[in-house]
Amino acid sequence: MENKEYTLRTLKASDVFVMTKIINKIGIKEFKECFNSPDVKDAITGAETKDVTVVGMQVMLEIATLVVSHLPDCEMEIYQFLASLAGEIRELPVNTFIDMILEVFRKEEFTDFFQRVAGSSK
Q1: Domain span at residue 33?
Q2: How far apart are CA 18 and CA 84, in angstroms?
Q3: Which residue of 77, 93, 98, 117 has the smallest Cβ count within 10 Å?
Q4: Distance from chain centroid for Cα 81
Q5: Is 10 among the domain residues?
Q6: Whole-structure pTM over 0.90, yes or no?
Q7: Of the candidates 79, 106, 74, 84, which has an alpha carbon nearest to the alpha carbon of residue 14?
Q8: Is 105 in contact with 113 (CB distance < 8 Å)?
């Protein structure tokens, strides 16, 4: 296994505020669209016929794509968020920076945050 150039801490309550700033800059409506597929709606409502892990990964991929498409709009907030998770990040190689973003999206706490947000917006 390759040594990473960073270590991500566990997400905590104060991270919600930075994530909310990012969501607001991108647009709540655009984030809601990530949850509009029938599979996602079934997973959110607890339908047992769907594979929640697969659906969760589909949603996280849609969210990652959305965030990446809006990087210029919320550059400072993303730097602030990632730096709070791992320390100084501006000088990381681009591949490492992208890996870090993807790792954040795969964190269980991050997924839980969006599941709760989606559940509250039914």
Answers
A1: 15-120
A2: 10
A3: 93
A4: 11
A5: no
A6: no
A7: 84
A8: no
